[in-house]
C-alpha cells in the first residue's frame, strides 16, 4: 500500500469507486481507495435493490438522477466497461389523496426539469403491470427512462476503470484513525499501515458518521436496516414488468431473474448496524406483497437479506467539505438512493474537489445545512 497519496477515498462501495474514477480520469494525482471488508461493495452497495429513478420531489435529486440515468445508459462509453441499464420504468401507485397531491406537484416539477414522467389512470396500469391489484388505486405516475441495474455490474465497471486510471484499490484496509494537525488532515491510519495525505474523501456510507467522528466532526448520517426478499421463478412475470411502488404501504417490487424482488422500508426500525434478518420484517414485506399482487400466494421465497440505508434527517445526501477541518470531503447520506445517484455524485464530487464549475447546483446538499437548520425534506423516499 502507498505511504503517501494526494487523496484517500474511504469506502469501496459504488460512491467511493465512482468518485475515485472521476478524480483519476481528470488526473487529480495519486488516489488510494480503502475498503475494510474483503470485497468491494460488501456494504450497502451489494444489498441494493437496483432501482434507478428520477421521480423525486426535490430539484437537486431529480437533477442528480437525470444526469446519472444518462451515464448508466452510456456506461461503456463512460468507463470502457459493460453494465446493463434495463429501462423498464418506475411506477408509483397512489391510493390516498394526500399522496396524489404530493406526486402531482412533484410531477409538475419533474416536467419543468425536462423529465419525461407521465400520469396514468388506473385503466392504463395493466399495460405495464397486469397482475397488480388496482381497485383502490386512483392514479399512478410512471417514467420510462427509469429502470433497473445490477449494482455489482456497475461497481465492477467503476472498479476496473479506476484501476486502469491508476487508482490503488485496497481491501481489508480498515481505517482506524485520521490525524489532524493545525486544523488540517495529515494522515490516515489503517490496519495495513498509515498513509500521509492532505485529502480524505468520506465515502463510507452507513459508517460515514464514524469516519467523521475520527476528526471530531458531527455528520448527520445514521444506519437504518432494510430487508429484501426474492422469490423463485414465477410463471406470470413479464420481462417488461417495471419497478412498482405502492406508496401507501411502502412496498416496492421488480422482476429479478425469473421471479420478483420485494422490499419495504419499515420506517419503525431503530438505527443500528445490526443486519440480522427479522422474521416480523419478512412477514411485513410478504403481507404487503400478497395484498398488492394476490398471485404471489404460491410463490416460494428464494433469498432474503438485510442491508443498511445511510440516512440523513432530510433524506438527502451530504456532498461537500467538512467545515470543521481542512481536507475532509463528504459524499454520503444518500438515504437509500446512493446506487442510482453514484455517477452524478462521483462527477460533482470531482468537480468540487478540483474547484471546477459544477454540473449540478448541489448547494442544498452541503454539510452545513443541518447546523443552519436549512432542511428541505425529500418526500418520495421508500
Ligand atoms: C435493502 C436495500 C435496498 C436498496 N435499494 C436501492 C435501490 O434500489 N436504488 C438505490 O439507488 N439505492 C438503493 N439502496 C441504497 C444503496 O445501497 C446505497 O445508497 C449505496 O449503496 C451507498 O453506496 P456507498 O458506496 O455510499 O456505501 P457502501 O456500499 O456501504 O460503501 C461504503 C463502504 O465503506 C466501507 N467502510 C466503512 N467503514 C470503513 C472503514 N473504517 N475503513 C474502510 N472502509 C470502511 C464499508 O465496508 C463499505 O463497503 C438500497 C439499500 C438497501 C440496504
Topology of helices and strands:
Layout (H helix, E strand, L loop, with lengths): L6 E4 L3 H12 L5 E4 L16 E2 L6 H15 L1 H5 L5 E2 L3 E5 L2 H16 L4 E4 L1 H4 L13 E5 L3 E3 L1 H14 L3 E3 L4 E7 L2 E7 L2 E4 L3 E3 L5 H6 L8 E10 L11 E4 L4 E6 L2 E6 L14 H14 L8 E11 L6 E4 L6 E5 L5 H16 L15 H4 L10
Parallel strand pairs: 1-2, 1-13, 2-9, 5-15, 13-20
Antiparallel strand pairs: 3-8, 4-8, 5-7, 6-7, 10-11, 11-12, 14-17, 14-18, 15-16, 16-17, 19-20
Helix pairs in contact: 1-6, 1-9, 2-9
The structure holds flavin-adenine dinucleotide.
Report on the architecture of this protein:
The protein has helices spanning 14-25, 59-73, 75-79, 97-112, 122-125, 151-164, 208-213, 279-292, 338-353, 369-372, and strands at 7-10, 31-34, 51-52, 85-86, 90-94, 117-120, 139-143, 147-149, 168-170, 175-181, 184-190, 193-196, 200-202, 222-231, 243-246, 251-256, 259-264, 301-311, 318-321, 328-332. It is an alpha+beta fold and 382 residues long. It folds into two domains: 7-48 and 152-221 and 314-372, FAD/NAD(P)-binding domain (3-Layer(bba) Sandwich); 90-144 and 222-311, D-Amino Acid Oxidase, subunit A, domain 2 (D-Amino Acid Oxidase, Chain A, domain 2, 2-Layer Sandwich), CATH 3.30.9. The strands form four sheets. The protein has an eight-stranded mixed sheet, with helices on both faces. A six-stranded mixed sheet has the order 9-2-1-13-20-19. A hairpin with a 2-residue loop joins β11 (184-190) and β12. The longest helix has 16 residues, at 97-112. Residues 10-16, 34-37, 41-45, 47-51, 174-175, 203-207, 226, 228, 263, 307-310, 332, 334, 336-340 line the site of flavin-adenine dinucleotide.
Amino acid at each position: 500500500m502507498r505511504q503517501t497519496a494526494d487523496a484517500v477515498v474511504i469506502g469501496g462501495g459504488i460512491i467511493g469507486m465512482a468518485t475515485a474514477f472521476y478524480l483519476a480520469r481528470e488526473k487529480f494525482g495519486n488516489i488510494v481507495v480503502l475498503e475494510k471488508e474483503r470485497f468491494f461493495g460488501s456494504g450497502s452497495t451489494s444489498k441494493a435493490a437496483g432501482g434507478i429513478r428520477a421521480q423525486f420531489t426535490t430539484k437537486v435529486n431529480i437533477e442528480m438522477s437525470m444526469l446519472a440515468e444518462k451515464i448508466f445508459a452510456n456506461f461503456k462509453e463512460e468507463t470502457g466497461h459493460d453494465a446493463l441499464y434495463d429501462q423498464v420504468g418506475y411506477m408509483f401507485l397512489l391510493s390516498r389523496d394526500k399522496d396524489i397531491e404530493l406526486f402531482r406537484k412533484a410531477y409538475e416539477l419533474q416536467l419543468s426539469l425536462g423529465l419525461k414522467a407521465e400520469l396514468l389512470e388506473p385503466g392504463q396500469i395493466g399495460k405495464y403491470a397486469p397482475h397488480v391489484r388496482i381497485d383502490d388505486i386512483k392514479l399512478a405516475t410512471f417514467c420510462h427512462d427509469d429502470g433497473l441495474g445490477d449494482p455489482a455490474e456497475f461497481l465492477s465497471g467503476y472498479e476496473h476503470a479506476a484501476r486502469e486510471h491508476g487508482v490503488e484499490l485496497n481491501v481489508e484496509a480498515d481505517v482506524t484513525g485520521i490525524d489532524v494537525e493545525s486544523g488540517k488532515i495529515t494522515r490516515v491510519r489503517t490496519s495495513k499501515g498509515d498513509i500521509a495525505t492532505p485529502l480524505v474523501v468520506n465515502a463510507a456510507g452507513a459508517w460515514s458518521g464514524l469516519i467523521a467522528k475520527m476528526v471530531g466532526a458531527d455528520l448527520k448520517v445514521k444506519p437504518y436496516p432494510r430487508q429484501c426478499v426474492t422469490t423463485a421463478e414465477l410463471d406470470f412475470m413479464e420481462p417488461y414488468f417495471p419497478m412498482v411502488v405502492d406508496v401507501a404501504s411502502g412496498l416496492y417490487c421488480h422482476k429479478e431473474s425469473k421471479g420478483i424482488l420485494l422490499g419495504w422500508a419499515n420506517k419503525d426500525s431503530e438505527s443500528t448496524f445490526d443486519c440480522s434478518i427479522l422474521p416480523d420484517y419478512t412477514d411485513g414485506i410478504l403481507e404487503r406483497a400478497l395484498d398488492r399482487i394476490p398471485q404471489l400466494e404460491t410463490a416460494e421465497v428464494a433469498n432474503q437479506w438485510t442491508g443498511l440505508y445511510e440516512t440523513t434527517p432530510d433524506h438527502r445526501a451530504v456532498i461537500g467539505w467538512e467545515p470543521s477541518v481542512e481536507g475532509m470531503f463528504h459524499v454520503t447520506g444518500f438515504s437509500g438512493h446512493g446506487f442510482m445517484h453514484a455517477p452524478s455524485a462521483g462527477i460533482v464530487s470531482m468537480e468540487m474537489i478540483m474547484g471546477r464549475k459544477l454540473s449540478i447546483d448541489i448547494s442544498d446538499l452541503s454539510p452545513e445545512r443541518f447546523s443552519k437548520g436549512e432542511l428541505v425534506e425529500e418526500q418520495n423516499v421508500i
